[in-house]
Amino acid sequence: MTVSLLDHDVLQATLDHALRGGGDFAEVFVEDRRSSSGRFDDGRIEELVSGHDRGAGLRVVRGDTTGFAHTADLSPAGLRNAAEAAAGAARGAGGASRTVGLADRSEHPLDAGVVAPETVDKHRKVEVLARADAAAREGGSAISSVAAGYADARRRILVANSDGLLADDDRVRTRISVQVVATGDTGMQSAHEAPGRTMGFELFDRIDPEDVGRRAAQRALTLLEAVPAPSGRIPVVLKRGAGGVLFHEACGHGLEADHILKDASVFKDQIGAAVASPLVTLVDDGGYGQEWGTLAIDDEGHPAQRNVLIDNGVLTDYMWDIVRARKEGRAPSGNGRRETYRHLPMPRMTNTFLLEGATEPDAIIRSVDFGIYCVQLGGGQVDPATGDFVFGITEAYLIEKGEITRPIRAAQLVGNGPDVLRMVDAVGNDFDTWTGMCGKQGQSVPVSSGQPTVLVREMTVGGTAA
Amino acid sequence: MTGDDLLTIARRVAGRARDGEQVEAYVVRTRDTDVEVFGGQVESLTTASVEGVGVRVISGGRQGLAWAGSLAPDVIDETLTEARDNAEFGQPDEWVGLATLADVNGAAVPHLDLWREDLESIPTEAKVRIALDLERATKDADPRIRNVESASYGDALAESALANSLGVESRNRRTTCSASAVALADDGSGTQTGYGFVAGRTVSELDLDSIPRDAATRACRLLGARPVPGRRIPVILDPLVTRSVLGVLSSAFNGESMLKGRSLFAGRVGEQIGAPVVQLIDDPTDARALGATPFDGDGVPTRHNALVVDGVMQGFLHNVYTGRRSGSGTTASATRGLGSAPGVGVRALRLEPGAKSPEEIMVAAGEALYVQSVSGLHSGTNPISGDFSVGAEGLMVRAGAFAEPVREVTIASTLQRMLLDITEVGSDLTFLPGAVAGMTVLIGEMTMSGA
């Protein structure tokens, strides 16, 4: 598989063409994405699917306006047409034309050790699913339905822009998911487990498919015994890993520069202010390990980097893409991301982590007289303009007199970002991450979040128990 | 880009089926325009055309699929080859198979007028002006509007064709357009947001004046909102919220979920699952619905499907596969993306409207929570167990009028309980983008958690 999606001359000519009628900035983003997936349901492999998507997105920025066009036609003529459409949309007429000088390409080939999906026999992908399915069914006769999914994607991108940037990236992501339904006297309960990494098939050297199936099954069985969740404001302990999504929603989105520049974030004008408990240090790190949100360069060609957003409770920076950074006359932070070449980039999180504290996790649980202990969350949502956010719990337990007791049924937790950040009363000395897809303005990108065990003094739990 | 007729392309692929093999091709082409404005300027303007092909091959009861975002002949060849290869790894399933002429014959094809010729000829400048005017009108709609977070216009001309090697063919095209604005209101008590939007098949069908009014009203009436103490309380759902709740509920009527042990209504056909006022219908033959379509994702002509009549469950929705396996036959409810085998889903789900207006429902409710918007619908709600818990904001209702605004509360129940607890279905049927219509609905009791 060749990594040169387009050659230097074609990229340069396309950029020159895009700026022929003037413009402040032009960019060509080329993407080639091959994916494969399999679905194992009802005890049999139901389907294998292969996908191939390839094309280029062209944007031209003039003043505050971005013109955007995309095409699946990567011929010089196809790119020229798209460049004209983008320039036309940016009202490019008038102004001086420019010639772009591209730098040497900054290359980011697949890491050594990555087992590329196209080299893996499809039987092995099917086998992974069969193993997860069989392990889940070992949960016994109460396990009434198992569905397992496998998905991999190899995404090669190439970015060139009128600042002379030229960079490529070659990433592989692999994920396995298992959904289990258990049936008992209380009806049906379902549970889900879906770990993924920015890795190839070697993922399964690290993650055991049987373990994924067993955990999903155990969770569904546990939920059969669950009591209704409490209703009202009570302390909430988040197990390591599980609660990263809390910070993703409570403040992550509100620290994305597009919301800030539109005056649509509660964190605007708060740089330097104490916005959180001093126990809170939050970073977004696109270069961290092989997490689900890890990348070498972002979708604007900027290298991934570690950005400290909140330092011991004090807000230090927002997350930036090129367009918003240009407005403020600063450098982007490696957070310009897009779902595909058909989408415009915008500031997005990558791997967002609350850093470890000093407290033993057990001591945190023991400190709570009555509250809930969240082991798995189902995702969340926020309105950055008000800071009000929610997240759903999919595995949680009551804490009674410092002990974890009965499991509780699914429920929503609601809070307000700035309020909850100040109510972080303890941060554990453990750490784990969580794999998820983050949706924003119709675009979905892979992210991870991570945190130690955390105690939030009080949140509203939306259960049905009196 | 090729200018070839989509059905011709699909037929060409289907015609390449070998002996003992079934081949189906689904081909799409969409042209989009999207305008976002901010601060009196065009923030972004996107014009694009997207094409793609999805190929399904069935051989010896084994199914394989492949898709590509291009209609170039060499890409289509590669896609067919990949789909064939993937079928090798499937496991035989006696019910797997493409739609046959027997599935199609006898079903009248609904005549639906879903295409508006004029949308194509509206100049981009006019579309940009719509968004700019919207932003200004939203800003001016109320002195408490401090900013407009976003104002946008978008449209799409979508065409698709399907052909299979058993002789089933279908062709579909439709136009849609929509416009929206998000208002930020502040009177010193903190920011509140409000959303206004409209959708239709062409610009002249959009009631653009309603957007600034709705966005401003919805933002301003929440000013000063606070959590209120939790209690059990009647809940009035705004049409947008009803739409979202019905969307979650719809999976319980999915024949595939039923067959695979994932429907909370399995085994309940003929039983009372809702209050007597509940009439639930999926009718893709109703051209007013934006999800209307003459053919489903298997290529079978669509029809009116009653799911609940007077609170009694009538049946499940099926595609060709689940219809055969369950013995019920297809209800022409196959959904379809390029990259997956047909699923089952609703396209034009709605409740039959009742007699009362939203105002009359507010009077009937007594003290109630009016829910303007919900959040976390897909994180705290489990359509398999039925557990339902969402974040909510809205207003208290007393004596038929809005009272204090409320935020940062949750409302909880179960989907099963909510259907039985519906006491009023409003007359204000509102067709919305997506597969579900909304209206005002009164639920007798839910648990509200708050301060």
How does this model look, in words?
The complex is a heterodimer of chains A (466) and B (451). By secondary structure, chain A is of the alpha+beta class. Chain A folds into two domains: 8-224, PmbA/TldD fold; 231-462, no CATH class. Helices cover 20% and strands 40% of the residues of chain A. Chain A has helices at residues 8-18, 76-89, 122-137, 203-206, 209-224, 244-252, 257-261, 322-328, 361-366, 417-422, and strands at 25-41, 44-62, 65-71, 143-161, 166-184, 187-193, 196-197, 231-238, 282-285, 306-311, 314-315, 336-337, 346-347, 351-354, 370-382, 388-400, 403-408, 411-416, 424-427, 432-440, 443-451, 454-462. Chain A is globular, with a radius of gyration of 24 Å. The termini of chain A are far apart. Chain B is α+β, with helices and mostly antiparallel strands and 451 residues long. Chain B folds into two domains: 6-220, PmbA/TldD superfamily (PmbA/TldD fold), CATH 3.30.2290.10; 231-449, no CATH class. Chain B has ten helices and 18 strands. Chain B has a six-stranded antiparallel beta sheet with strand order 3-2-1-4-5-6. In chain B, helix 4 (124-140) runs parallel beside helix 5. At the A-B interface, strand 1, strand 2, strand 3, helix 2 and helix 3 of A face strand 2, strand 3, helix 2, strand 4 and strand 6 of B. Strand 3 of chain A pairs parallel with strand 2 (41-59) of chain B.
The ordered H/E elements of chain B are: HEEEHHHEEEHEHHEEEHEEEHEEEHEE
The parts of chain B where pLDDT drops under 50 for at least 5 residues are none
Helix content of chain A: 10-25%
Give the helix level of chain B as a range of percent.
10-25%
Main beta sheet of chain A:
7 strands, antiparallel
How many distinct folded domains of chain B?
A: 2
